[in-house]
Amino acid sequence: MGRRSGILEFAVLGLLRESPMHGYELRKRLNTSLGVFRAFSYGSLYPCLKTLVANGWLIEEPGSAPEEALAATLAGRRAKIVYRLTAEGKERFEELLAHTGPDAWEDEHFGVRFAFFGQTSRDVRMRVLEGRRSRLEERLEKMRASLARTRERLDDYTLELQRHGMESVEREVRWLNELIESERAGRDQRGGPADQDRPQEQEQGRSPERDQSPPQDQSGDTDGLPRHRGGSRPDPSDDTAK
């Protein structure tokens, strides 16, 4: 499975864990909640849904009352289908959620993984954040070395563009440092990872909380998330940080 289809599988399972949806609603959530899927099409989504159904991770259900479904069929219209996560699908999502390999640190993957940090255990969040920071620090070092070699041959606009790219990466590194420091502080205050039983709480009917954007300022307990100290935080999927 390719990178793009792999992260789509993760996003679809994560969104359907919150509630069943039909295809149009699911595509809308992918576009609005997860920015990396802004230009996503039905042509890419439905093959993914069919594969997940074939794997036993989703089931298809009628999305309307039986008489409405029959009316749609008689009128030659396709009845709406609602996709629901199965028990096996929940297990699959938990497996993907615990993954902390290099794919989780890449630009597109990290933005989606961060959106589901509210469902992720603290130790996994730490490994993903530290991996992302390490990847960006390597990128920043290469950018600086390249700029030092080519500075004299660049015109003013190209030079300014490269500086802008470096500043974007530097800004995300600072943001990651804040997140990592706050995660560590939250863990120390609680004597260990406090989120290990979060999935169990969700299975008992509690509404899952999913961060869909970088955390905002809070006056109370931040549960490991930082209080921002000025400036705007970068979008984890910002193309300028690539």
UniProtKB/TrEMBL annotation:
- Start and end residues of each stretch annotated as Disordered: 184-242
Q: Where does the record place a coiled coil? A: 126-167
InterPro entries this protein is in? Metal_resp_DNA-bind_regulator, Tscrpt_reg_PadR_N, WH-like_DNA-bd_sf, WH_DNA-bd_sf
Q: Which Pfam families match?
A: PadR
State where composition is biased (Basic and acidic residues). Answer: 184-212
What range(s) does the Transcription regulator PadR N-terminal domain occupy?
12-95
- Keyword tags: Coiled coil
Question: Which PANTHER family does the UniProt record give?
Answer: CONSERVED PROTEIN (PTHR33169:SF26), PADR-FAMILY TRANSCRIPTIONAL REGULATOR (PTHR33169)
State what protein this is by name.
ParR family transcriptional regulator
